[in-house]
Amino acid sequence: MNNYPMKQRSVWADKSIRKKIIVLLVIAFCVYGYYNLRPYFVPVPERPDDFEIVFKYGVGAKNILDTREGTFTRDMIVDTSITIQFTLTGRELETVWAYIQRNHFYELEEQDPARAHSVSPIVTYVLFVHAEGYPDKEVSMNDLRFDYTLDERRFFRITWKIRDIIESKPEYKSLPEPRGAYA
Q1: CA 20 to chain centre
Q2: Whole-model pTM?
Q3: Could you tell me which residues are beta bridge partners of residue 125?
């Protein structure tokens, strides 16, 4: 009898197992891509010339982007809010329009009130959209920070993108930081 321990073979050493794992990974990637990336390959209708949004977010929705007025108001919490001139470029407006279309903004249902107050402090997002050929629509949702419904996920994809655009601009970065915090 041999007293030497048997050498363990790696899972990757077996070519048939390696092929099966690779095939399963490719299938998983394709399924993920179909359900999560498909909307980004759907053609987006042309952005109307009069496309405007009013986007409010934060505790009490006090941060406000108004593309019609060309302003942004930042909530300073304990101090008076600051309003500055703030415009989005044509490319940024195109991006917002694409997110609105790809996430089916005009089909979104309002958030269930029972879900709307499950987190404190409540961070509220409100998006009002005006565009020729489309009904004016406003949707408001509170960020639950977990377990989003399909409509909530679609809404927050749009609003988080708008927030990213706002917060990446030099005009926003030059604003003073608010004093205090919400609890």
Answers
A1: 35
A2: 0.78
A3: 57, 141
Peptide bond into 121 cis (omega under 30): yes
Q: How far apart are CA 145 and CA 24, in angstroms?
A: 31
Q: In a structure prediction context, what are the per-residue pLDDT tens digits for the chain, which is 183 residues long?
A: 566 666 666 666 677 877 888 888 888 877 776 666 655 666 899 999 999 999 999 999 999 999 999 999 999 999 999 999 999 999 999 999 999 999 999 999 999 888 766 667 889 999 999 999 999 999 999 988 788 999 999 999 999 999 999 999 999 999 999 998 887
Q: What is the DSSP letter of 148?
A: -
Tokens linked to 76: 């300073």
User: How many CA atoms lie less than 13 Å away from 60 in the CB half-sphere?
Assistant: 10
**161: closest CA among 75, 78, 103, 81?**
103
Amino acid identity, position 13: A
The one-letter code for the residue type at 60 is: G
Phi, psi of 96 (to 5 degrees): -60, -45
Is the separation of the CB atoms in 75 and 58 below 8 Å? yes
Helices then strands (H, E): number in the chain? 4, 6
